[in-house]
């Protein structure tokens, strides 16, 4: 496992090849640097042609991301990246498309577009940088901020109940759901590779520290001392084990229960993670306890759910192909005459 | 066919206006459009005005539920569906009450007497069941009350259809009768029915029977002694079809995309009266048309932006309320400098307004409705066939000038139909996308890098799309450095970019055909300046006034932003300028602001188009001042 010190802090070292010539302008220490670096590494390892890669983002700190990569990119408007991606994919299904968004961009102003992107299963890799705060507007609570969050717009604490992003995305029938964090680069890279390999909307929620407005929001999951007890890294076909192998989770009917392996619980009784099991995935995304509570379930990371279903653009373009096959490729003169004409003169 | 009992007289008419009216479930629109089709095929000029309520099935028998279809057909060139009707066909009491004011004195009423029972009279608000068909109130008209319901049922007695289905054939009885009255045969309608009900032979049979029964009723009834004949119009020679404005817009998009060699992507969210463009386009997938019914108006335009970014032709349509939602994305497309067509089929506003009625009150929204300095070319179509031409031009500008373009039409011409002497594909103007070439990867930047925002003589940037090698670049809505497109907050750069973008848009009208007067004199007492769907009414009025010896010119604007340079000169050749608009004076204010001309307005904001008489009367009053 990589330690936090391995993560590039401050100015990113540009990777020859996939980094653009633009100076990266996130705050020093921002979690975004790590995500950018892992992305560059993955692109470099994959070695895809730069011109066939497109990054589309919305608005927010994370959405500056496309400017820093030497691929095609568009920094669009707040919340609308999913819609732009949808049109792009229909016209250019052969491209590799990534969407960069944040918790405000995709779950607040763009919430509607995100759920429709997921149900349509447009083939795009969505990196949802979740820092549980509005950074670019300087520190208001976001739709993922815990209830009671004291921010510049909520001096007495926020009264809004937050979204559980992956549960929301599961509800919208997302076909690939995963969670990663900025402070675990190796795991993040693995997840990015998995997301890219999936055909359909790959939704990766990335816990990202905003060290200016919400520092330490995910400390309980990222700091060495807490991490084993509060995180659960799920892998397909393997039992749900955490706390350095001393604890596990089993299903008591539909209810997940923590069992103590050190005190005699059997590995055989544990919940075996199956990425293809949609019902179990619905329970897994609900492991979302406040870590301050006694007996809280650990927070899962990894690929929660994968299902293969055709993408919207595949089906749409198949209809176009079928229409051409059945009616023949359109003839403009026939279209203009419309078939029912009369002649004068 | 049954033998004629007594010889009928045939009278010739130059032009006839008929208004069919009934419940919104009575099949009025179909009756009207079929009769229109029949006349057009015969060689008449035709112009139509469908007018229906916003509710799909408003309460039966009420004034709110009245659907109407007005058409004018003639042996002369026509530009409007007519001011007053010669014939009013009403299926019930409410239809009569709602439309009697539109009938000429001594005009003909054909009424379905079954629609005037106590219940219908009450629903229509006739006091104390006072039946207008029998109380003598219609003596100034030629009234024919026919029990169309009963006669249709009788004609279909042998069929297996239920009573409700039989009654749905009433409109075919009416259509048959009207065809008899105007000496038209039933061939076209039968062809139409055969294709429409190919899979429902019993329904086809019933419709044909009702159609024939209506025709034969005219032939055999002794009430009707006169038939009419409207000879073909002296239309320019050529091959014609019938087309509505929304169809014209859809075909314009497809044709232009084909000529430009681009895949058409149409992102849209259903809204009246624009949805028919989506319906039409979705039927033509074999032309590579990709239609996307988005989750909302914002997603509709953004998906189109994504398609254009990918090298397709992105287009989106809506009406005023939806256009309001698209405003921010229009600004993005303007900043990205990519092709995009935004269609506004205007309806009565503000807010939800009058969804099925027409208005021209979104002109300011089109010209001004974005944050920041974001000038976007605005074009308006003046008739159903003009929708094709203007759409084609809108696409040409969008693609060749790398800019979003707004296309304005309205409910009146969107749903109205007229004969169209359609062009040959080969005769359509070529459209050349300014695609980036591989050489640009190293040639146009000072340090050997591609400059996505370097401009040509027209201020147009190269269109580099994903997949083009070594032309990778990043673009966005944030202000960009001249040339490179990189983020820049430099104050002088911002002003420079604002001016460069505006200059690019200004140049759009430099290379377009000369601006001609639509009709009338080149200079003189009065210029009537119009835009959009008021064309027909103004043209008819100006012709009539000039025939009476007046010196009036008619100029109709297609390019509403930017204005053409010649406009100022034309305005200066007339002593007075009158601007009729279906709004409170939006073009008038733009003209006054731009040219300091004391233009006066004729403004009608009733959800209904102008009649030519209204324009004429206003012009005469204005001339007397």
Rg for CA atoms of chain B? 27 Å
CATH class assignment of the domain at 4-224 in chain A: Alpha Beta
Structure classification of chain B: alpha/beta
Instruction: Tally the beta strands of chain B.
Output: 23
Number of helices of chain A: 11
Shape of chain B: globular
- Main beta sheet of chain B: 7 strands, mixed
CATH homologous superfamily identity of the largest domain in chain B = Pyruvate-ferredoxin oxidoreductase, PFOR, domain III
Highest-level CATH class of the largest domain in chain B: Alpha Beta
Shape of chain A: globular
Helical residues, percent of chain B: 25-40%
Structural class of chain A: alpha/beta
Folded structure, characterized:
The complex is a heterodimer of chains A (345) and B (625). Chain A is of the alpha/beta class. Chain A has a domain at 4-224: 3-Layer(aba) Sandwich (Rossmann fold), CATH 3.40.50. In chain A, 29% of the residues lie in helices and 19% in strands. Chain A has helices spanning 32-46, 81-91, 103-109, 111-120, 165-171, 185-197, 219-222, 227-230, 278-284, 312-327, 332-337; strands at residues 53-57, 72-75, 96-102, 124-130, 176-181, 201-207, 231-234, 241-242, 247-252, 255-260, 299-306, 342-344. An eight-stranded mixed β-sheet of chain A has the order 2-1-3-4-6-5-11-7, with helices on both faces. A three-stranded antiparallel β-sheet of chain A has the order 8-9-10. Chain A is globular, with a radius of gyration of 23 Å. The N and C termini of chain A lie far apart (84 Å). Residues 1-15 of chain A have low confidence and may be disordered. By secondary structure, chain B is α/β, with parallel strands linked by helices. Chain B has three domains: 9-229, Pyruvate-ferredoxin oxidoreductase, PFOR, domain III (Pyruvate-ferredoxin Oxidoreductase, domain 3); 241-427, Thiamin diphosphate (ThDP)-binding fold, Pyr/PP domains (Rossmann fold, 3-Layer(aba) Sandwich), CATH 3.40.50.970; 519-624, Rossmann fold (3-Layer(aba) Sandwich). In chain B, 36% of the residues lie in helices and 21% in strands. In chain B, helix 10 links the parallel strand 10 (264-268) and strand 11. In chain B, helix 1 (28-42) packs parallel to helix 6 and helix 6 (170-181) packs across helix 8. The longest helix of chain B has 20 residues, at 201-220. Chain B is globular and about 90 Å long. The mean pLDDT of chain B is 94. Classes of the chains: A alpha/beta (345), B alpha/beta (625). Chains A and B meet through strand 1, strand 2, helix 2, helix 4 and helix 10 of A and helix 1, strand 9, helix 9, helix 11 and helix 12 of B. Strand 2 (72-75) of chain A pairs parallel with strand 17 of chain B.
